Amino acid sequence: MIPKDPVMLLSYINTQLRDFYDSFEDLCKALDLDENEIKQKLSSIGYEYNDSLNQFK
Which pTM value belongs to this model? Predict the structure, then answer.
């Protein structure tokens, strides 16, 4: 289960990306997450995925 709070979600997703996944797409596939839902939640607090950094910034 992933965090519901957007700030906690940001921390969780970026940690997972840093430690285990080469891309956001890979993370979502492996954890069966809806990419658009995650992007919307993180966008609501001003964060967008950066492909070259492989993190939400």
Answer: 0.95
